[in-house]
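[job 4471] stage=fold_predict status=RUNNING
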Amino acid sequence: MKELVDFVVLIIIYFWKFYKKWKEKGRDVLFVNTLMYIYLSFVLFFTLMPILTRIPFLYFHQCPYEPMNLVPFIDILMRRGDFLRQVVLNVIMMIPFGFLLPLTNKNNAKISKVIFYAFLVSLSIELLQPFNGRSSDITDIITNVTGGMIGYVMYLIFKPLSIKILNYIGRR
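[job 4471] inference complete, writing structure tokens
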């Protein structure tokens, strides 16, 4: 239930800051950007939420900060926990990012931009997770960026179909 507060705030931000601006640019822009916003909201849900209800605890230092594990793939090498599941989920989580980012803006339609932004999103999540009592790992950054690159390859494969769908949405 604590996450509900965060989702309400995200909905308010969407309608207050983004909806009108994106709608003015066309239905296709509204569709893609809204899809990206919803996707990023769920990434926040799975990686960082609850956020707002934890702020008072951060102020009173009730959340110990654990440093990031900087040894890549150590969980796999040491066979700790459910390492394979974590790797697969981290890759899958960023595939939509790599697919949707080039559709949000033509300037983002390069692999270098997708890699850079996937890295920034992943690094931000990993740096913030310990404040919410979660672990942080360099492996997650590597696997998230890999997922972003896979998503970009899928974007390239489905680009003609995606453009047709967006043109159709934009004409309606």
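[job 4471] summary: The mean pLDDT is 89.
[job 4471] exit 0
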